[in-house]
Write a structure and sequence with these properties.
alpha+beta; seven-stranded antiparallel beta sheet; about 50% helix; elongated
Length: about 700
């Protein structure tokens, strides 16, 4: 199975994307994603047609494969000028001169009224227009999915042919509408240029992320004398395990782990948080972040293609190519729009001719209907808003796996939180150490605890060894870990030591409230309590949800007492504790059946519940299975971005509805106005071109709109 990712130019609307999708399906491609907003086409080949054959096939459809997506993102040279702008500039001088015939008397340019002069001026514009609109129209008709260029080609050709007939038959100036044909073509080219620029602006957040993927790295190598040599290389050439040097003010070229040095790092490219984070040895750095201060040597942990930033860019692009349910109706209408408009234009001509008894105005009204109608607006309504919403989310550390989640967020009425690692940091710290035997000082207890717990992989043991690391540890003659009890060891004098749970000490004390009990020769000598700190942002997040009237639940496998303590501290409405993964799944399934529910979790045991929730939300430091199951991933300690994800989902959907309302209303109002003669073809062409710009501007508001 070969995965193909191409950049395709020439797609103007959802019908274009549908044409390419149907062609790829016919050729046996799978997992097809076509995004006409940014021209991305991705699919899997299963050994049928070759990539070269499919590329030729796409070219015959009227579109151009300009290279791979990777090449474009890596800065491959692009066209010096936008195609639509180039054609606009070619057509504009001829069109302006043609329009001057309206004031020829004032200018004294009576030669402009000569029909052959007008034909000569119009012909270059018409040929240019047909080389683009006409060719595209013919190919779309041949493929059975007419696009908007059919309407433009028909309108311009009708005006040109009518004028040409008047010229050849010498019927007089009342039959000359060369300026109409030229103006339609020029204005549509200009409108398409404005539309493409508007769409391109909706991609700027994602383009910023993609641009940050490419940088130069200082790779550390060693010569034959084992001396360090710094080699500048493209970060795309870095591989896991490579050593790199990152200096003050440089971009981090790849995901890596600090081996030496300290630095302040701006990770806003991933987290949206502009405040620098302090990093030191063993800390990780995210590719694309900026070293604000300091110098470090680090080891690459993931190649550029597998980095956190690359995964974000790829997933956002994939989500942008999907369509939320609200767009499906618009797509169905868009698919039959062009044939319907042609029918309305023909009906407009016939009715007006019968009523007015005049061929010329009837034809002009029919042409106006053709050029003012805009199927693109229907197809662009959702992609433009989704592109902006997902792009802004990615820049702020919120990663949506699919566009559907954006729409579902508007209905969320319940949020379920896991406890450990979600509402709490998941990093256990020592809360208290107590010696219950005067013969053992606290320092001696720490030494014993470290010497025992360093042989355990339990999270509590890890927190103890990290806090009390010492070189003066006890050398054991024998040591073993007994599941459910703890660590048991014998020293060289045959003294028996335990660091265990209450089960190991139940015969020695009735107090079961501590985490670790230290025992020597069957005598309790001390105990240790650890705590999992509440995330600082958890209070704000829960407070925001309550303010919005969203019911909150704490769903945990931990004890009821500890869960209720956390819930009380945060103001969570309901507590469901001591749950197995199967029970968590059943709880979330039950809650989702009652009302749309979001589940926030981070562990392996949360994965089934995340999959069952209306929307599953995971943190980026969560287990891989939890991340893969979730619909939304909050990057880099991103619980604080939960309100942003809810707000962006809601406001993106609002923007989609506004765009669709505009698209429908524009066509519902504009087509009858053109049919009744209130708009001539030239104004119709201008209105059609600007209609998509309105959508782009409205979608662009999501970049700066307050959503929380």
């Amino acid at each position: 199975m070969e995965n193909i990712k191409w950049k395709v130019e020439g797609m103007d609307c959802s019908n274009c994307a549908l044409t390419i999708r149907k062609y790829l399906e016919k050729e046996g491609a799978q997992n097809i994603r076509v995004n006409f907003v940014d021209g991305a086409v991705a699919f899997d080949l299963n050994g049928g047609s070759s990539a070269q054959q499919i590329q030729k096939g796409i070219d015959t459809l009227g579109y151009t494969v300009t290279g791979t997506l990777e090449a474009h993102e890596a800065g491959a040279p692009e066209q010096k000028m936008n195609t639509h702008l180039k054609y606009t500039l070619i057509c504009l001088p001829f069109t302006i001169v043609l329009l001057l015939h309206m004031v020829h008397g004032w200018l004294g340019w009576h030669w402009l009224m000569n029909p052959w002069v007008q034909l000569a001026l119009c012909l270059p514009v018409y040929i240019t227009g047909m080389s683009y609109f006409g060719k595209s129209a013919v190919k779309s008709l041949r493929n059975g999915i007419p696009n908007m260029n059919v309407l433009i080609a028909l309108g311009a050709t009708a005006a040109f042919a009518y004028s040409l007939a008047g010229t050849l038959m010498n019927l007089g100036e009342d039959y000359l509408f060369y300026e109409t044909a030229a103006t339609i073509i020029t204005l549509v080219f200009f409108g398409n240029y404005l539309e493409s620029e508007s769409i391109r602006s909706t991609q700027k957040a994602l383009q910023g992320l993609a641009k940050s993927q490419k940088t130069t790295a200082n790779m550390i190598a060693f010569d034959e004398n084992h001396n360090e040599v710094i080699m500048p290389v493209d970060n795309k050439d870095l591989r896991s395990g490579d050593l790199i040097l990152i200096r003050n003010g440089e971009l981090v070229p790849a995901d890596c782990k600090i081996l030496w040095g300290e630095a302040s790092v701006n990770e806003s490219i991933i987290t949206g948080e502009s405040m620098p984070r302090e990093k030191q040895a063993k800390d990780t750095l995210i590719g694309g972040s900026l070293l604000v201060n300091g110098t470090v040597k680090a080891q690459v942990t993931a190649s550029a293609d597998d980095s956190a930033l690359a995964n974000i860019v790829n997933l956002v692009k994939q989500a942008q190519s999907e369509k939320p349910p609200v767009q499906q109706m618009a797509d169905r209408i868009s698919a039959i729009f062009v044939p319907a408009v042609i029918g309305i234009a023909l009906l407009t001509f016939i009715i007006n001719f019968l009523v007015l008894k005049d061929f010329t105005p009837a034809l002009m009204r029919g042409i106006a209907v053709l050029v003012i109608s805009c199927p693109c607006a229907l197809g662009l309504a959702t992609p433009a808003a989704v592109a902006v919403g997902l792009g802004r989310a990615a820049r702020n550390g919120v990663l949506f796996r699919n566009a559907k989640s954006l729409e579902l967020f508007k209905d969320i009425r319940q949020v379920v939180f896991d406890k450990t690692g979600t509402l709490t940091t998941g990093q256990l710290t020592i809360a208290q150490l107590r010696s219950v035997n005067v013969a053992f000082s606290e320092e001696e207890l720490k030494r014993i605890a470290f010497s025992l717990e360093k042989y355990s992989g339990h999270p509590i043991a890890k927190s103890i060894t990290a806090a009390w690391k010492t070189k003066n540890d006890i050398r054991w003659a024998k040591i073993e870990e007994i599941k459910g009890l703890g660590i048991k060891a014998l020293d060289k004098e045959d003294n028996e030591y335990w660091a265990g749970s209450y089960k190991a000490a139940s015969a020695l004390t009735k107090d079961d409230t501590h985490n670790v009990y230290i025992i020597k020769n069957n005598e309790l000598i001390g105990w240790i309590d650890v705590q999992d700190d509440i995330r600082p942002e958890a209070h704000t997040v829960v407070g925001y949800l309550r303010k919005k009237g969203i019911t909150t639940y704490l769903l945990s496998g931990d004890s009821k007492a500890k869960s209720e303590q956390i819930a009380a501290a945060l103001g969570i409405d309901h507590v469901i504790a001591e749950q197995t993964p199967e029970q968590k799944l059943a709880v979330v399934e039950s809650l989702s059946a009652k009302a749309p529910t979001a589940m926030v979790g981070d562990g392996i045991n949360d994965a089934p519940a995340l999959a069952k929730a209306t929307i599953g939300i995971s943190l980026s430091e969560a287990s891989q299975i939890a991340i893969q199951t979730a619909d939304v991933v909050l990057m880099n300690h991103g619980l604080k971005n939960l309100p942003l994800s809810l707000g962006l989902g809601k406001h993106t959907f609002i923007t989609i509805r506004q765009n669709l309302f505009w698209a429908f209303c524009y066509n519902i109002v504009a087509i009858p106005m053109a049919a009744l003669g209130f708009l001539n073809p030239m104004l119709g062409a201008l209105a059609m071109g600007l209609s998509d710009v309105v959508l782009g501007i409205n979608s662009g508001r999501l970049f700066v709109k307050k959503v929380v």
